[in-house]
Amino acid sequence: MITEKLKANLLILFIGFNPSLRSYERGFNYAGRSNRFYKILYLSGLTDRLFTPEESPLLLDEYQYGFTNLVSRPTARADEVTKAEYRAGAQELYRKLTEFRPTIACYVGKGVYLSFANKHSHKGFGFTEKSLTPYSLDFVAPATSGLVRMKLEEQVSIYRGLAEKVQHLRILHAK
């Protein structure tokens, strides 16, 4: 089942490595039992309530948040994806970013960004100095999988920087 949710002019396009087997089976992004994605969105202020994976399609219309992955093939672990799949996925992701032109491309995991960025690097998390496409701001966020050893509070703090930018953009668009 496809977990991608895209449309033109999204506020944020969340980009993961590839779907987990559970997300793929259920048809919803970040659907693993231990994944903190929706909790982090809520605690950081990116949503005004806690969503479930099954409600993720609402994020597309209510918040202008979309979802895609660097590689579309589901696996149990990201290290099961081949280099050839990453190269092909990077070309396809660039096409999606230039076609759909989200305001912010949020790479959910530093490895996602580095796999897409090729020779570009980014230290730490947050907005990059230079975007990889001319249409979007790039934000590198920690992965939300339960396998990530970062404390929830640290993850929320990083995503709060994204939420502050989104709030600022919403105020600008309201004027």
TrEMBL record:
GO terms, biological process: base-excision repair, AP site formation
One Pfam entry name: UDG
Keyword Glycosyltransferase: no
An example molecular function term from Gene Ontology annotations: uracil DNA N-glycosylase activity
Source organism, top-level taxon: Bacteria
SUPFAM superfamilies, per database record: Uracil-DNA glycosylase-like
The keyword Hydrolase is annotated on this UniProt entry: yes
InterPro entries, per database record: MUG/TDG, Uracil-DNA_glycosylase-like, Uracil-DNA_glycosylase-like_sf
Keywords: DNA damage, DNA repair, Hydrolase
Uracil-DNA glycosylase-like domain mapped to chain residues: 8-153
Name of the featured protein: Uracil-DNA glycosylase-like domain-containing protein
